[in-house]
Design a protein that fits this description.
494 residues, alpha/beta, 7-stranded mixed β-sheet, 6-stranded mixed β-sheet, globular, binds nicotinamide-adenine-dinucleotide, Ald_DH_CS_GLU
Length: 494
């Protein structure tokens, strides 16, 4: 079958949660449509799990964990199966990319290069951790009774059943950010995708089984956040919640997880600054703003959305940025000539347009964009807001759409004050060739990632996460893997 034929067949089914290595046979639960954001038409449908089904999925994941086929498998066997899983995702990459563009709306280029291509690199990196988990040998200083001798060491053990709760902006990639370290460590995992974008992770679950991941180790829960998601987080047999989503829901999840002392990590929202210094290369900064601010229609937690520019550069920067944004071609993600595609849903389109209306009311100037174009899907024109001031919502609230707020500053101290005077602290970027200035400013910025002359790269080897209300914990790198383990101390008298 060609990728298009496979996608068409997959879309024609009514999908359910994935449990014990196959689609759930439960018959209760509302069936809802999955829409194509480019046409606003239904393309597939899913049945939402009710509370009892959550219990069944957790039981399956827990039974698989206790049975030990995966959790106590030889690390080299886990690594080999996970590498095969990555190979299968790569081999089915075109099909997954098309499916992602159809359910989420994003450009097919981004779906191929980032959602699938980037995720496959990440999968291979994480597969390698299965054989590299380690503890330490430690000397003890207080032998009891006097004269006793001890050998002490630590070991990393899989934390248990993991609930991975993911948003709709990069549904496949962010799910794999949780699936891979959990499986590398020997955990069982239940992924709860957004009800708006449930399809790709269901297809990937089939590929995991084909690769050799035992049934019950990797499950998918399709359901509403407030029902199935909340029941999953509150379940006493879930040992860790790894959540990516909004700050508001993250707070609810942290509060619920604490009731059972369930471990949790939170990757939340951002209102990420770009700071142009006086010597910034304007051409590079404009290209960097398009990439850092409008990728995936700005529906990126790390996206640049407030741009601080010295007064002296502002007019030139706004003119060049507005001209570049104005020239972007809008249309469906499957059309490879387009640069701006729909946002995920009618509801989200309405939310972005409301933010634009508020920005106008508060005195911002729209230099380009500002409305929904006359197209059938959920589109928002890419928009530049000039004359934004620090107190305005456009400088402070996460819009999560194709909207760039430009704010002028007098001194670098004032710029850094505005950068840090935010509830968020996910990413930031500095645009300068003055190395000394950049090195002075980097430690002053309250953000989990600071880029210089770029605003985009995330890498499996670079920890990623938020200061302040942008989250708790980090994804990527050794620390992220270790967050799927418990640390056990062992002390042996001899
Ligand atoms: P959201 O918080 O509304 O939903 C995220 C997920 O949580 C969905 O699967 C949803 O069904 C589920 N959920 C909702 N209520 C729940 C509850 N009470 N209990 C359990 N689960 C529940 O976020 P969204 O609108 O899907 O995504 C956009 C947000 O995600 C933005 O704020 C964005 O910044 C953030 N995000 C952060 C990162 C990061 O790495 N920091 C990455 C991507 C997106």
């Amino acid at each position: 079958m060609t990728p298009l034929e496979t996608v068409t067949r997959f879309l024609s089914l009514t999908h359910s949660s994935f449990v014990d290595g196959q689609p759930s046979t439960a018959s209760r639960g509302d069936v809802i449509a999955v829409n194509d954001p480019a046409s606003a038409q239904a393309i597939s449908q899913v049945r939402l799990a009710e509370r009892e089904e959550v219990d069944r999925i957790v039981e399956s994941a827990r039974a698989a964990f206790v049975a030990g086929t995966w959790s106590r498998a030889r690390p080299a066997d886990r690594e080999r199966i996970l590498l095969r899983f990555a190979d299968l995702v790569e081999a089915h990459g075109e099909e997954l990319a098309q499916l992602e563009t159809l359910e989420q709306g994003k450009s097919i280029h981004i779906a191929r290069a980032i959602e699938v291509g980037g995720a496959v690199e990440y999968m291979r990196y994480m597969a390698g951790w299965a054989t590299k988990l380690e503890g330490q040998t430690l000397d003890v200083s207080i032998p009891v009774p006097t004269g006793a001798r001890y050998n002490a060491y630590t070991r990393r053990e899989a934390v248990g059943v993991v609930a991975g709760i993911v948003p709709w902006n990069f549904p496949l990639m962010i799910a794999l950010w949780k699936i891979m370290p959990a499986l590398a460590c020997g955990c069982s995992i239940i992924i709860k995708p957004s009800e708006e974008t449930p399809l790709t992770v269901l297809r990937v679950a089939e590929l995991a089984i084909e690769a050799g991941v035992p049934p019950g180790v990797f499950n998918v829960l399709i359901g509403r956040g407030s029902v199935a998601g909340a029941a999953l987080v509150a379940h006493p047999n879930v040992s860790k919640v790894s959540f990516t989503g909004s700050t508001a829901i993250g707070k609810q999840i942290g509060t619920a997880a604490l009731q059972n002392m369930t471990r949790f990590s939170l990757e939340l929202g951002g209102k990420n600054p770009m700071v142009l210094l006086q010597d910034a290369d304007l051409e590079k900064a404009v290209a960097g703003t398009l990439m850092g601010g409008l990728l995936n229609q700005g529906q990126v937690c790390a996206a640049a959305s407030r741009i601080y520019v010295p007064h002296a550069l502002k007019a030139d920067y706004v003119e060049a940025l507005s001209a570049a944004v104005n020239g972007m071609k809008i249309g469906p993600g499957l059309d490879p000539t387009t640069q701006i595609n729909p946002v995920v849903s009618r509801r989200h389109q309405g939310s972005v347009l409301q933010h634009l209306e508020l920005a106008r009311q508060q005195g911002a100037t729209v230099t380009t964009g500002g409305n929904a174009p006359d197209l059938p899907g959920y589109y928002v024109q890419p928009t530049v807001l000039a004359n934004v001031e620090h107190h305005m919502a456009a400088a402070r609230e996460e819009i999560f759409g194709p909207v760039l707020s430009v704010i002028a500053y007098d001194s670098l101290d004032e710029a850094i004050h505005m950068v840090n005077d935010s509830q968020y602290g996910l990413t930031a970027s500095l645009w300068t060739n003055d190395l000394t200035r950049a090195m002075d400013l980097i430690p002053r910025i309250e953000a989990g990632t600071v880029w210089v002359n770029s605003h985009v790269p995330v890498d499996p080897n670079l920890p990623f996460g938020g200061y302040k209300q942008s989250g708790i914990g980090r994804e990527f790198g050794r620390g992220a893997v270790e967050a799927f383990t418990e640390l056990k101390s062992v002390c042996i008298a001899y």
